[in-house]
Specification:
8 strands, alpha+beta, 15 helices, elongated
Length: 345
């Protein structure tokens, strides 16, 4: 009898899979932390952040007790900052709703902020050997090619079909940690988007895409959209060697992070700044533009230095004066970090 999908994948992973990642442990807190960090982010980028995060917050109780600013500072530069806000909120929920014990079932794990069905399944599989399927981007690509699934994998109908297939292929519960890591590794190392290594793939004998020469057609590419362009003016307002930063609202781009005050145009800057922050400022010559690319748009930043002439009102509660060193150590977005590291600043 030929080996099953799961058996071949497990045999391949035993020899060729990744076994030395720092989060390959049974501690659900550490697994959860890594799974959130790995959303939309590569392993090589995550490792350093993961280690620094655990040094400061080694347990879920430590994370729940940490301040918002500490959490955002630890996350700064990793992007997709809603993940950090949800991580902090989820840790607090574990303490209040689950008595400080990380939940065991995929359903309970999925109740935590920022955790979806696939992430919950991965945490349960790695931590508790729960027989639950994952369906991240790598897994969708593997299954679409192996089973020859046409259509947009993001559509509801195709995704439903893929969930059913992913669940059907699962091994016994005892093999779930290795199987889950194995299918992730296969998509990350062999069944890659552009140059799949089909000759060494353990699933190549019955892979539809390989048999039909359709590896680069499956999964079907998403329709390309034109990336919107946005512009903003960031004010580098200095006073006695310190910069004024404004903490962003808790949601949206850079939510909860410390940022430079922004305005739509340099023409409106002085009046806008006085009404918002109670400071009279004088603009200096603008610095060269800086372009920062997000997933869904490109932002052109005009850095606008200014100096404080007078205080005309009470300082807003969401603002604080930082030295450059203090700002770089705080929770600031990557674009601002790039800006502050420029020699002209």
């Amino acid at each position: 009898m030929p080996a099953t999908f799961a058996e071949r994948l497990l045999a391949w992973h035993a020899t060729h899979g990744r076994h030395d990642l720092p989060w390959q442990v049974s501690d659900p807190y550490r697994v959860w932390l890594s799974e959130i960090m790995l959303q939309q982010t590569q392993v090589t980028t995550v490792i350093g952040y993961y280690q620094r995060f655990l040094e400061r917050c080694p347990t879920v109780a430590d994370l729940a007790a940490a301040s918002h600013d500490d959490v955002m500072a630890l996350w700064a530069g990793l992007g997709y900052y809603a993940r950090a806000r949800n991580l902090h909120a989820a840790a607090k929920k574990v303490m209040t709703d689950f008595g400080g014990v990380f939940p065991r079932t995929p359903e309970d794990i999925c109740s935590l902020p920022g955790v979806g069905r696939s992430t919950a399944a991965a945490i349960a599989a790695f931590s508790y050997q729960t027989r639950a399927a994952i369906l991240d981007g790598n897994v969708k690509r593997v299954l679409a090619r192996w089973a020859g699934i046409d259509g947009n994998v993001a559509s509801k109908a195709i995704e439903t079909r893929m969930w059913a297939l992913a669940e059907f292929l699962l091994p016994a519960a005892a093999d779930m940690p290795a199987y889950t890591q194995g299918i992730m590794d296969l998509g990350a190392t062999l069944c890659t988007p552009k140059k799949p290594a089909c000759l060494t793939c353990p699933l190549n004998e019955d892979c539809v895409a390989r048999r039909e020469g359709r590896q680069l057609e499956l999964p079907a590419p998403k329709p390309k959209k034109k990336i919107p362009e946005r512009q903003t003016v960031m004010l580098l307002v200095s006073d006695h060697g310190r910069l004024l930063l404004e903490q962003r609202p808790p949601t949206g781009i850079w939510g909860g992070l410390w940022c430079l005050p922004e305005t739509s145009t340099t023409l409106a800057a002085e009046q806008d700044f006085q009404s918002r922050f109670g400071l009279q400022i004088e603009l200096e010559p603008s610095l060269p533009e800086l372009v920062h690319v997000f997933t869904h748009f490109r932002l052109t930043i005009t850095p606008q230095p200014a100096r404080v002439l007078a205080t005309t009102g009470v300082q807003a509660s969401n603002t604080r004066w930082f030295t450059r060193e203090e700002a770089l150590a705080a929770g600031i977005p990557t674009a601002l970090r790039k800006l502050l590291l420029l020699p002209s600043i």
